[in-house]
């Protein structure tokens, strides 16, 4: 499907099955503000937008909820990917899958509550990572130690540092197997 403008699904409840936008080309934005995806398909997906191209921003915010996986595998986002959902799928499911996604500007991660479901960003690229750690333990990212956050091959050009996150916290976030150097010491790797 080719859409010559934007796709706005604001405040729309979907109670049966999954919303399928796989392979769609949207010349403007895709916005799901307050959208409630309470249905899933037989694979547990609530939103399937694999291979989607959005020339503008892709936004899931303002009370957005998903009972199943939000899948954006190999998506191309010409603007920012704004993930500010109220709730994503629980720990027994894949919550968010953006493996191989390419995001030109910001990947904004600001869920309204801790995410316990699996989050996959393997081989994804973003211009800048913006995640809110203020008052949010670990930025509400799921645990790398429990295997719920997969970041292998995830790259970004910049990271927002306004929140005062230490490099030790970032190493823990990425699940680095290396032990950090004692405070005040730098290693050859950085």
Descriptive account of the structure:
- With 190 residues, the chain is mainly beta.
- The protein has one domain.
- Helix content is 4%, strand content 34%.
- The chain contains one helix and 20 strands.
- It has one helix at 167-173; strands spanning 2-3, 7-8, 13-14, 19-20, 25-26, 30-33, 36-37, 45-48, 53-54, 58-61, 65-66, 69-71, 76-77, 81-83, 94-97, 102-109, 118-120, 125-131, 149-150, 155-159.
- Strands 1, 2, 5, 6, 9, 10, 13, 14, 16, 18 and 20 form an eleven-stranded parallel beta sheet that branches. The chain has a six-stranded parallel beta sheet with strand order 4-8-12-15-17-19, with no helix packed on it.
- It is globular and about 45 Å long.
- The termini are far apart.
Main pleated sheet = 11 strands, parallel
Number of domains: 1
Q: Based on CA inertia axes, which overall geometry fits?
A: globular
Beta percentage is 25-35%
> What level of helicity do the residues show?
under 10%
What is the mean predicted local confidence, pLDDT? 87
Number of strands: 20
Radius of gyration: 17 Å
H/E element sequence:
EEEEEEEEEEEEEEEEEEEEH
Low-pLDDT runs: 177-190
Number of helices: 1
Distance between the termini: 46 Å
Class by alpha and beta content: mainly beta
């Amino acid at each position: 499907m080719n859409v010559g403008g934007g796709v706005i699904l604001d405040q729309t409840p979907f109670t049966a099955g999954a919303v399928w936008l796989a392979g769609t080309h949207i010349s403007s934005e895709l916005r799901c503000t307050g959208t409630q995806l309470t249905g899933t398909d037989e694979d547990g997906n609530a939103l399937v937008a694999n291979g989607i191209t959005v020339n503008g921003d892709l936004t899931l915010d303002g009370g957005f909820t998903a009972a199943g996986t939000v899948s954006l595998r190999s998506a191309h986002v010409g603007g920012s990917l704004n993930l500010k959902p109220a709730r994503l799928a629980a720990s027994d499911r894949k919550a968010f899958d953006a493996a191989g996604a390419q995001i030109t500007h910001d990947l904004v991660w600001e869920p309204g509550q801790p995410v316990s479901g699996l989050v996959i960003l393997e081989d994804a690229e973003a211009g800048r990572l913006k995640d809110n750690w203020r008052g949010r333990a670990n930025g509400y990212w799921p645990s790398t130690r429990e295997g719920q956050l997969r970041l292998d091959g995830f790259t970004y050009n910049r990271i927002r540092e306004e929140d005062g996150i230490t490099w030790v916290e970032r190493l823990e976030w990425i699940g680095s197997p290396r032990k950090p150097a004692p405070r005040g010491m730098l290693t050859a790797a950085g």
